[in-house]
């Protein structure tokens, strides 16, 4: 899959605690330890890097993301609901309870990230790459999937409901405890060893 990377050439390095004082959040490389409450509302973060940032005390309210890299960040419980997210990379990130409900993701990559209870309910996914990650107990409910690639990823406990995975190759993934409905599995690609995990959905009993 041809996925567009964040368009970042050079960014000014700046302490993360200055985020509250910036009017236009563009072309910055944020570093440091958050030592105050930070809240952003109705803004667009454009062409920025967040390096080793803990977002526990950062609140994003109606913030769109364009050309952004999150690397080695803790994004647990961050709400990205109802947002436009394009050309964004989450690399080596911790994302427990992170939510993307009703958001539009295009050219987005999850690389070597650990997530649990990730929520994509009613989201739109177009050119989304998930690789070498732990997508555990996540929810894909009524997701509009145009193009997605999932490689070498643990999907244990994740639910795919009313979310078509037609032509999506999960043969390199762990799906032993993954839940699918009939709409989701139709046309999905798996390997022969994964068949027992899915056969009960078809009403087949092995004796």
Which keywords apply here?
eight-stranded parallel sheet, three-stranded parallel sheet, elongated, mainly beta, Pectate Lyase C-like, 207 residues
Structural commentary:
The chain is mainly beta. It has one domain (12-201): 3 Solenoid (Pectate Lyase C-like). It is 4% helix and 40% strand. The protein is built from two helices and 16 strands. The protein has helices spanning 182-185, 195-198, and strands at 12-15, 26-31, 38-41, 44-51, 58-61, 64-71, 84-91, 94-96, 104-111, 114-116, 124-131, 134-136, 139-141, 144-151, 159-161, 179-180. Strands 1-2-4-6-7-9-11-14 form an eight-stranded parallel β-sheet, with no helix packed on it. Strands 8-10-12 form a three-stranded parallel β-sheet, with no helix packed on it. Strands 13-15-16 form a three-stranded parallel β-sheet. The radius of gyration is 18 Å and the shape is elongated. It starts with 11 loop residues before the first strand and ends in a 9-residue tail after the last helix.
Give a short overview.
It contains two helices and 16 strands. The chain has one domain: Pectate Lyase C-like (3 Solenoid), CATH 2.160.20.
CATH class: Mainly Beta
The end-to-end span amounts to: 40 Å
Computed over alpha carbons, the radius of gyration is 18 Å
Q: How many distinct folded domains?
A: 1
The neighbouring-strand order within the major sheet is 1-2-4-6-7-9-11-14
Query: What is the CATH topology?
Result: Pectate Lyase C-like
Low-confidence stretches: none
Which oligomerization state do the chains in this entry correspond to?
Answer: single chain
């Amino acid at each position: 899959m041809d996925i567009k990377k964040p368009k970042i050439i050079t960014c000014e390095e700046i302490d993360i605690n200055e985020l509250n004082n910036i009017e236009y959040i563009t072309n910055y490389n944020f570093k440091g330890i958050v030592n105050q409450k930070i809240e952003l509302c109705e803004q667009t973060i454009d062409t920025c890097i967040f390096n080793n940032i803990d977002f526990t005390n950062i609140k994003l309210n109606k913030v769109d993301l364009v050309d952004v890299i999150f690397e080695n960040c803790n994004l647990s419980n961050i709400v990205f609901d109802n947002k436009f997210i394009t050309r964004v990379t989450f690399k080596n990130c911790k994302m427990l309870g992170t939510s993307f409900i009703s958001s539009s993701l295009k050219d987005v990559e999850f690389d070597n990230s650990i997530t649990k209870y990730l929520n994509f309910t009613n989201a739109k996914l177009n050119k989304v790459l998930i690789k070498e990650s732990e997508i555990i107990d996540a929810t894909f409910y009524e997701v509009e999937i145009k193009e997605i690639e999932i490689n070498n990823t643990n999907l244990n406990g994740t639910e795919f409901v009313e979310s078509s995975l037609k032509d999506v190759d999960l043969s390199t993934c762990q799906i032993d405890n993954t839940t699918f409905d009939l709409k989701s599995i139709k046309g999905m690609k798996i390997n022969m060893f994964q068949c027992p995990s899915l056969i009960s959905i078809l009403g087949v009993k092995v004796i």
